[in-house]
Amino acid sequence: DAKTTQPTSMDCAEGRAANLPCNHSTISGNEYVYWYRQIHSQGPQYIIHGLKNNETNEMASLIITEDRKSSTLILPHATLRDTAVYYCIVTGNTPLVFGKGTRLSVIA
Amino acid sequence: DVKVTQSSRYLVKRTGEKVFLECVQDMDHENMFWYRQDPGLGLRLIYFSYDVKMKEKGDIPEGYSVSREKKERFSLILESASTNQTSMYLCASVSGGAVGTGELFFGEGSRLTVL
Predict the structure, then answer these.
(1) CA distances in angstroms from B24 to A38, B2, B30, listed in the order given
(2) Which residues of chain B neighbour A103 with C-beta distances below 8 Å?
(3) Which of B43, B44, B99 shows the shortest C-beta gap to A94?
């Protein structure tokens, strides 16, 4: 599986958009980009995934660059409940490998 | 609501004891996984199973075994618990033929302390 690089931590003001970057420069053609988050003391929760097109659901948007070497997860209006560790994962057909993720702190 | 249920949220065991961690999913998923999570190390894959009676080693299988006798149940076994197995254990499942694709559903976790 391709490896990912994410910032260790980020802050975001409540109500503003949170933009979480992820680099995956060694991604191969059949690998997807997945995003999960983990709120303290809970199991990780799926957010969104994509192959090459941008994706949007009720939780977030995923923007993947044209060369697929990086992506950005966007939480359009961050709330305090979005404070969590966010994991960017690239995978084909092997089990998900979770790195250390980005700790997002949403500040009132 | 779809669910992955882990039998115990908190366990305290003594060194050398045999420990069973049970996980049940109600989504008829083919693939099930056991991870452990430690501060600073993230989630690490211990074992996974893509079908009944099938199992595959993950990144850190030493000291663990697993059992999948029924599709909905995946058990993690510590034959002789040691203090370095004190950790949060997370079970997950996903449908489909490819173990890496699709939405992974996690349980709430089992926090094991070995004294």
Answers:
(1) 20, 11, 12
(2) none
(3) B99
A98–B contact, CB cutoff 8 A: yes
Phi, psi of A66, rounded to the nearest 5 degrees? -60, -35
DSSP H helices in A6-107: none
d(CA B45, CA B66): 13
Beta bridge partners of A18: A75
What is the sign of the dihedral through the CA atoms of A36, A38, A44 and A47? negative
Q: CA triplet B52, A50, B96: central angle to 5 degrees?
A: 15
Chain B touched by A28 (CB under 8 Å): no
Taking a C-beta distance cutoff of 8 angstroms, is the pair A23, A4 a contact?
yes
The pLDDT tens digits of the residues spanning B57-91 come to 999 999 999 999 999 999 999 999 999 999 999 99
What residues have CB less than 8 Å from A29, skipping those under 6 apart? none
* Residue B79 CB neighbours (<10 A): 11
Which of helix, strand or coil describes residue B93? strand
Question: Residue B68 — φ and ψ, nearest 5°?
Answer: -135, 85
B89 with B34: CB under 8 angstroms?
yes
**Among all chains, which residue has been given the structure tokens 């994991």?**
A87
Phi, psi of A39 (to 5 degrees): -85, 145
Provide the pLDDT for residue A93.
74
